[in-house]
Each structure stands twice: as structure tokens, then as C-alpha cells.
């Protein structure tokens, strides 16, 4: 089925150019999600990064609603008294009725207000609310599904909150509630069922059934129209969850998804075509000088190299200056996230590097949280040995420097043979002996609870990547989120990404894909697929994505083996690049960050909110759709300067020649960046929504 285009991003520029006016003085926005101040997955990043822009738009009338989790509140939220009088009365009324509702500021950019509801405190109402859900909506929730039970509690409490807020208002309010994902969707269904005066938006970041079907190794995208959705959901024991998600999609005033490919998925699985596609963005911080982010890359890379020195102690027989760091990160879904095809491609890359006698060594990191019980002792020992060697070298350096200083003070050249005594040599020999190792460097940094059945470790055993001295590809599986307080790899995720050379995300199911987007913003090339929202977005807006460090893997129209061969080709091609070519490519990748800035992409959330208000309150707001002009969008052309790919930039002469020098001189970073900026054209307005009262609309008519 072809990926036809509906409402999507076409052209992007600053919000200052957008002349839509909308009176939000009397409107209140509640944004409701299970991941408000509660990191579980990618939705947390969406809400956290978008909060600043939304706060600037709505000011004191913007409230985030999420679950109360004490451990998160202690570190992320400042609890305060409600500043809004109506909301204060609402929270007091709910607390007096047996709930526990907290109010505070989320300590992130924008400092938005948060309303946090303790779902566990009202668990005594679960059976009664389940009965009400069955009687009113014919949705039954089994007792053993804890996540669905939380969704029921959270849904009824958010509907209670919105209903009580409307009741406490002195005048009829214009309330807008934006619900994210099925875990919050039940609150939307209840709002419509109770006919509350609330305009609603439902955003699905991934469909439940889609995620389960893809995990089951089915040809998902080529059979979307053929699935019996009720049967498939029932077979996987998620029919009740699917019913909540589908009911929310059908009840809402405005239904949105995060990418074009998810819109097609939602249309077939949830049986409603999304009204808007709202791509996810990031808060992009531009550097005043181009070289600044390159310096950050060098600093972070040095810290990763220190970890590698310790991890491979005793087997450090490769040149770290010719070592490339690849990584994959995200939820531990072995097939959905493409870890299976990445490992197979690494095995093939290892063969290619060996037979071509390449001096390049690749260290591939797998950052995917799994069940562990502690750090691997051998891994910790490696870092301890590295630190001991550093301390020994530093101590010898201090003694050597002191003797050299004293010799120069008396005007004599030092006798090198006397600069180091027997004690120094003994100390250095002991340090060298401590680096001896009779086993291979470990593949996994932790002790896995299910080592024998773990998908990544099982695949590594099959392909034989055991970090041997002959291997040009080394693998490190880090089954834990990165943290700057870790005794093993003390780096946070952002710092780690900056230090790597390539992010590899060959996902089969990826509705958007924040990991490659974060790489792009930090100037790190990445591999994505034409089945991810990010990959489709970049293919739509860049004439030659690979020239800008965005490699798009075809997983839709190729077999697994063909896709794996293509990925291997991408990786081998990247390994052939010179250091200068990688620097040029990182500069180009970083320039694409403007495409992913919330200042641009936030307008689609703004349009969705305006559309919902106009549909729910037609007497107050007017909605006038406008057709886009004939000239749509923009595409970054292929750079006119030196191609970054060695396959395209290789000369016929095998030796260095003057032609290569002339080719190098063609690259002008500032000139190329200016040309890219000129390729961004003015956007059309998705919909002209004028915020006026009905009288203003009548005057125009």
C-alpha cells in the first residue's frame, strides 16, 4: 500500500512569521499523560521538551496532569499551593472526597504547572468504577491487568478533575483537554460520555495493536488492511486496552498522530483517519560558532575512549584513534527496534573489515535496559585496572618532572638514565603485569538474570562476536540507562551520544523515533528506516539524506536479508570515510536541527488545539480551513561541495594527487550553510483559525 500524504509538515520557518490570532484569555488547557513527571518512554520527552513553548502560548492557563510518584516528585517537582482560584477549589473538593491530588511546578524548561493524582490512594474505588465503565461503555477490564487497572483509576480521576473544574467556574468555561495515549484515553471517553463542556484532543504516539503485531514477526505494513483487529487484539489478551484506545480515537474532537506512517496505521487499526499529523520536536540550542559542537564531540569521545581502555585491558591491540563508536539505544524490543538486523550487519561488517585488512575498529554499544542483578565483576575490574595504571603513570611523571626541574635549575642537561630509579621500574612492571588477562573482554557489562534466553546475547553467541583479538568489530551490551553517577560509564545519555560517531536505529516499528532525532540535533549521523516517522520525515524534506548524515534503510519493500545487506553497506561505507569527511558530515547533520525545532513543529499542536476549540465551542470560536498554495514545501538539495561518501569522492588515481587538494578546497562551510538556510521557504498555513467571537465572524460574512 503506497504511503500517500495527508496533512503533514511541508515547509518550516519561525513562529514569528505565523499571523494566526487566537484569543486564549478565557480558555484553559489541561494536557494529560501518564508520563508527566514520570519517565517511562518517549512520550516523556515529547511533553518535557514541548512544555516551554506551550507555557509561552498559554501562560498561567496551562496545566499538565499526571500520576503522583513519590520518587519522581522528590527530584522533579516543587509542590506549591494552586495559583488558580478555580483549580484550588477543585483540588480541595477532590481531596475532601477521598482523593489525593497535588499541585506544583515541574522543574524543567518553562516550569509548567502540574496536577499530580495519586491513583493508588483511590484503589478502593476500582471495582465500582469498572462496573460503571462496563455499564456506560461496555468495556470490561480483567482484574489481573495491573496497567489497565491504573488506566481505569487515572481515567476516572482525570474526568472527575475536569468535571469538578467546570462545575467550580462562575461562567461557562472553555476547557481544552489534550490526552496522550491509551493510558490517559479513558478520561477522554468519560468526558464525552458525561457531556462535560470540554474540547478534547487525542494523540496516539503508537497503536497498541501495531506494537504487538510487529513484535510477533508478521508482515505488518503490507497487510494492514487485512487484519481482523478484534480477533488479533483478543488473541493477544489486550482487547480491553484496544477498546479504550479505539473509543478515545472515535470520541475525541480532534485525533492526531505523530507521523505519516502512524496515521496510515491508525486509520486501519483504529478505524479513524487522523485529523492532523503532529511531528515531535526538540528544543534546539544553536551554538554561536560551528566548531563548538565539534569540540563537545571530541571531549565526550575522549571519555568513551577511557571506558574502552578499561573494558579491553589486556586486549587493547587496536588503535583508538582509528576506532569508531556505533550505538543503538531505546526500549528493549529486540525485533521492533532492529537490534536483530543490527547484530547481523555487524557480523558481516566484521568480515568485510577483516578481508579488506582495514585499520578501523568498530565498537558497537547496545544501550537497552534489561533485567540484571549487578555490574559484571570483570567489567568493574577493568575500570579499576585502568585507574591504577593512570595513577602509576601520574606518580612516575611527577617524580620525573621534579628531577628534570631540579637538573635544569642548576644549568645541567639531565642524565636520562638516572631520571628513573629501580623503584620506578618496579612500580611500572607491576602495573604492566596487572593488565594481563587470560579471558576475552566481556560482551555484557552486567550480570543478566536471564542470560541463556536473552535475545541479544543469544544472537551474539550465534554470530560469534566475542570481542576476540582478530575481530574488527567489538560489542558492548550495557543493559541499563546511562547515568553520570554510574561507577562504570559515568556519562549521561546526551554526553554519550555526542561522543559517538554513528547512531544505528534500523527499527521495524518506530512511530516517530526520538533517538535519531536527538542524534541529528547533536550533529551525529544516524541510520533510520522508511518505517519510522523520523525516516519518512527526512526523506520527505531532504533530496539526498545520506549526504547530510541521515541514512534511510529500506525495511518496507525489501526482505530482511536485503535490508541487512543494505545496512552493512551503510556501515562499511561510513568506516571508509576519512576523519575530515566525518567532520564535514557532522556539520551538515547539525544544520538539519532546524527541521526538528519545536519553534517550527509546535505549530501543528497549536493548530490541533485551535481546531478542537472551534469544534467544541462553535459559538465562541470560528474555524476556517484554507487550501495550501500550489507550490508546497521544500527539499534540502544535495550539497554542492565535497561528497562525504568515499564511494562518491574516490578518485581514479590510487595515489594522492593535486586533484584531491583542489577538491578539498571546494568545501566552504559558511557558504554551504547559507545555501541550506536559503532553501527553507515560507510555509502555508494549515488552517486559518481566527480567535474571535461569533459576532466577528458575522461581520466578515
TrEMBL record:
Keywords tagged on the record: Allosteric enzyme, Glycogen biosynthesis, Glycosyltransferase, Phosphoprotein, Transferase
Listed pathway(s): Glycan biosynthesis; glycogen biosynthesis
EC number, UniProt record: 2.4.1.11
One record GO biological process: glycogen biosynthetic process
Region (Disordered): 628-679
InterPro entries, alphabetized: Glycogen_synth
Gene Ontology molecular-function annotations: alpha-1,4-glucan glucosyltransferase (UDP-glucose donor) activity
Highest rank taxon of the organism: Eukaryota
One Gene Ontology cellular component: cytoplasm
Catalytic reactions of this protein: [(1->4)-alpha-D-glucosyl](n) + UDP-alpha-D-glucose = [(1->4)-alpha-D-glucosyl](n+1) + UDP + H(+)
Comp. bias (Acidic residues): 659-673
Assembly, per entry: Part of the GYS1-GYG1 complex, a heterooctamer composed of a tetramer of GYS1 and 2 dimers of GYG1, where each GYS1 protomer binds to one GYG1 subunit (via GYG1 C-terminus); the GYS1 tetramer may dissociate from GYG1 dimers to continue glycogen polymerization on its own.
Protein purpose: Transfers the glycosyl residue from UDP-Glc to the non-reducing end of alpha-1,4-glucan. Glycogen synthase participates in the glycogen biosynthetic process along with glycogenin and glycogen branching enzyme. Extends the primer composed of a few glucose units formed by glycogenin by adding new glucose units to it. In this context, glycogen synthase transfers the glycosyl residue from UDP-Glc to the non-reducing end of alpha-1,4-glucan.
Annotated family: Belongs to the glycosyltransferase 3 family.
Protein name as catalogued: Glycogen [starch] synthase
Organism: Scleropages formosus (Asian bonytongue)
Amino acid at each position: 500500500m503506497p504511503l500517500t500524504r495527508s496533512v503533514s509538515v511541508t515547509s518550516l520557518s519561525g513562529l514569528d512569521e505565523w499571523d494566526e490570532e487566537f484569543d486564549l484569555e478565557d480558555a484553559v488547557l489541561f494536557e494529560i499523560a501518564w508520563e508527566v513527571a514520570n519517565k517511562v518512554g518517549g512520550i516523556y520527552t515529547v511533553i518535557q521538551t514541548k512544555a516551554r513553548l506551550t507555557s509561552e502560548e498559554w501562560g498561567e492557563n496551562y496545566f499538565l496532569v499526571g500520576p503522583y510518584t513519590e520518587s519522581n516528585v522528590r527530584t522533579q517537582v516543587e509542590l506549591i499551593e494552586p495559583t488558580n482560584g478555580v483549580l484550588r477549589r477543585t483540588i480541595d473538593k477532590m481531596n475532601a472526597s477521598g482523593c489525593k491530588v497535588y499541585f506544583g511546578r515541574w522543574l524543567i524548561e518553562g516550569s509548567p504547572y502540574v496536577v499530580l493524582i495519586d491513583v493508588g490512594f483511590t484503589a478502593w474505588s476500582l471495582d465500582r468504577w469498572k462496573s460503571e465503565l462496563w455499564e456506560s461503555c461496555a468495556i470490561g477490564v480483567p482484574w489481573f491487568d495491573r496497567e489497565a487497572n491504573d488506566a481505569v483509576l487515572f481515567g476516572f480521576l482525570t474526568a472527575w478533575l475536569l468535571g469538578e473544574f467546570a462545575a467550580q467556574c462562575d461562567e461557562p468555561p472553555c476547557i481544552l483537554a489534550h490526552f496522550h495515549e491509551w493510558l490517559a484515553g479513558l478520561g477522554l471517553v468519560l468526558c464525552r460520555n458525561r457531556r462535560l463542556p470540554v474540547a478534547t484532543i487525542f494523540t496516539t504516539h503508537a497503536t497498541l495493536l501495531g506494537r504487538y503485531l510487529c513484535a510477533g514477526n508478521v508482515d505488518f505494513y503490507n497487510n494492514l488492511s487485512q487484519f481482523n483487529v478484534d480477533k488479533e487484539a483478543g488473541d493477544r489478551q489486550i482487547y480491553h486496552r484496544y477498546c479504550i484506545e479505539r473509543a478515545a480515537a472515535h470520541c475525541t474532537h480532534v485525533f492526531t498522530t505523530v507521523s505519516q506512517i502512524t496515521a496510515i496505521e491508525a486509520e486501519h487499526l483504529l478505524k479513524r483517519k487522523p485529523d492532523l499529523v503532529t511531528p515531535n520536536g526538540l528544543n534546539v540550542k544553536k551554538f554561536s560558532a560551528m566548531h563548538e559542537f565539534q569540540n563537545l564531540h571530541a571531549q565526550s569521545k575522549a571519555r568513551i575512549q577511557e571506558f574502552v581502555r578499561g573494558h579491553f585491558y589486556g586486549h587493547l591491540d587496536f588503535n583508538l584513534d582509528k576506532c569508531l563508536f556505533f550505538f543503538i539505544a531505546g526500549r528493549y524490543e529486540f525485533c521492533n527496534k532492529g537490534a536483530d538486523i543490527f547484530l547481523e550487519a555487524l557480523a558481516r561488517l566484521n568480515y568485510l573489515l577483516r578481508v579488506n585488512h582495514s585499520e578501523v575498529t568498530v565498537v558497537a554499544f547496545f544501550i537497552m535496559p534489561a533485567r540484571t542483578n549487578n555490574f559484571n565483576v570483570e567489567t568493574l575490574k577493568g575500570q579499576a585496572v585502568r585507574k591504577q595504571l593512570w595513577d602509576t603513570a601520574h606518580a612516575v611523571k611527577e617524580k620525573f618532572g621534579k628531577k628534570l626541574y631540579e637538573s635544569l635549575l642548576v644549568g645541567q642537561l639531565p642524565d636520562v638514565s638516572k631520571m628513573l630509579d629501580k623503584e620506578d621500574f618496579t612500580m611500572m612492571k607491576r602495573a604492566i603485569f596487572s593488565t594481563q588477562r587470560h579471558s576475552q573482554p566481556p560482551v555484557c557489562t552486567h550480570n543478566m538474570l536471564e542470560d541463556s534466553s536473552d535475545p541479544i546475547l543469544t544472537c551474539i553467541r550465534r554470530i560469534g562476536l566475542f570481542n576476540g583479538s582478530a575481530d574488527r568489530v567489538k560489542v558492548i551490551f550495557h543493559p541499563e540507562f546511562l547515568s553520570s553517577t554510574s561507577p562504570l560509564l559515568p556519562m549521561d545519555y546526551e554526553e554519550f551520544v555526542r561522543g559517538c560517531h554513528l547512531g544505528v536505529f534500523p527499527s521495524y516499528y518506530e512511530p516517530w523515533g526520538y533517538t535519531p532525532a536527538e542524534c541529528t540535533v547533536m550533529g551525529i549521523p544516524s541510520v533510520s528506516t522508511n518505517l519510522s516517522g523520523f525516516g519518512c520525515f527526512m526523506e520527505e524534506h531532504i533530496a539526498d539524506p545520506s549526504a547530510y548524515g541521515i541514512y534511510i534503510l529500506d525495511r518496507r519493500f525489501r526482505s530482511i536479508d536485503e535490508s541487512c545487506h543494505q545496512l552493512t553497506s551503510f556501515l562499511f561505507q561510513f568506516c571508509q570515510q576519512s576523519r575530515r569527511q566525518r567532520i564535514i558530515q557532522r556539520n551538515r547533520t547539525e544544520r538539519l536541527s532546524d527541521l526538528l525545532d519545536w519553534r517550527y513543529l509546535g505549530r501543528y499542536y497549536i493548530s490541533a488545539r485551535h481546531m478542537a476549540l472551534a469544534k467544541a465551542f462553535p459559538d465562541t470560536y470560528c474555524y476556517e480551513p484554507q487550501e495550501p498554495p500550489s507550490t508546497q514545501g521544500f527539499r534540502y538539495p544535495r550539497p554542492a561541495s565535497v561528497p562525504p561518501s568515499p564511494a562518491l569522492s574516490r578518485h581514479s588515481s590510487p595515489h594522492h594527487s593535486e586533484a584531491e587538494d583542489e577538491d578539498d578546497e571546494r568545501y566552504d562551510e559558511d557558504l554551504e550553510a547559507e545555501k541550506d538556510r536559503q532553501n527553507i521557504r515560507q510555509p502555508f498555513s494549515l488552517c486559518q483559525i481566527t480567535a474571535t467571537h461569533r459576532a466577528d465572524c458575522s461581520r466578515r460574512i
